[in-house]
Amino acid sequence: MLKSIKKNWLNSVIKPFLFLIVLGTFVSVSYGQDREYLEGFYAVTRSDNQIFIFNFNKDGTVLVTEKNSEDKDFKELKKYELSGNNLTLHPIWDPGRIDYFYDVSITKKEDGLFTFSKAGLDYEIQKHSNWPAIMHTLFVLIALLIFNHLCRWSKWFVWATCILLPLYLTIYVWPMTTVGTAVDTWFHVAKVWSALAGSVFFTLVRFTKLNNYKWAKFIVAAILVINIAEAVLRDFELGTGFGGIYHFLNGTAGILSIITLSGWLTIKADNSRFKDMVWPDMTLLWIIAYDVWNWSYICNCIPEHAVMGLIVLLSCTIPAFYKVGTWLQARAYTLSAYMMYIMSGSRWISHPLNNVLLPDNPTFIIILAITSLGLNVYNAYVHFGMMIRRKAWGFGQPVLTLAEQEAIVATNKTFPHFIKLA
After folding, report:
1. InterPro entries from the entry (predicted)?
2. DSSP 8-class letter at 358
3. How far apart are CA 374 and CA 267, in angstroms?
């Protein structure tokens, strides 16, 4: 009797269940082989200049990012279906915030663009290619290196490009080019003018007797401190508003970057034909820690400029390695040039097709912020350790010895003194 019940249960339940599993597997595999799909990043532009990014996956999902001109981007995962030249999107859950792509016919044209219209607005969806973006970033790096060299070469070039040109742009260009873009904020206005002010003042230090006055040297250091403090405040502002811990980690790293600046009394114009402004007590360790902190800030707060921000940092760090002590001078010149560039053409520059897109990975942002804090903590450990051992407590006094300072000023070769500080 018991054996009969087990046999009937096996025939009535188990076998049909196994049959359904085999059939479902066969159907799903067949469907997966026949199903059309898209893969990779696509840039979506709308006729009112709103930008979206589609990240298509083979599993039939697409991560839709709505680029926000104020603070944070909005991201939502959706389903998609591709049949021939027709693309449709469907919500996985509630339609949510990004609901512009439902109930429309998205059609692929002969030129490879997907297009559709909705509510009087025209949309274009185009596959992202890294090559034009890579060429753009390389062009910016080379242009900034050349701009820095021209500023070293001629003070008249600085007056023309850092005083006359931005005055014209402020009155006639930026009021039109920044509206509705990511740079239409108080921070970016403050950033461009603080960078320009630094460029002008640093040039006066180089070519006048200002480099002999302590108050002028203090202003040089204060400009850098203000520049860092602006970003620290922005990090904490966004961290408070959106609750991302990486903002607080990186903001703390920025504070450490400020308090480990020393030796501003050693700032002076050298005797080379360029009359470069050098800061002998600024170590390469501090510069590297600053670069990581600043790039982490860019990835946290303006991620669409992440790769370009790294290029801007390289444009002033590269000169600091072939002429140590000139980093701050190069930072002011290259940042001024880039900020004028991005304020004048933000819509084109921030377009996904013109930028190398980093993977959308929150873990990366957190790791970068932790690295930023770790490097700046290590720099603080080295810096204050040197202060204690050498009793270099005076305000503005150098931590490096006079011999180390002279070695930096006397040569244009790389002086990796951060290794000795360890």
Report:
1. DUF5692
2. P
3. 28
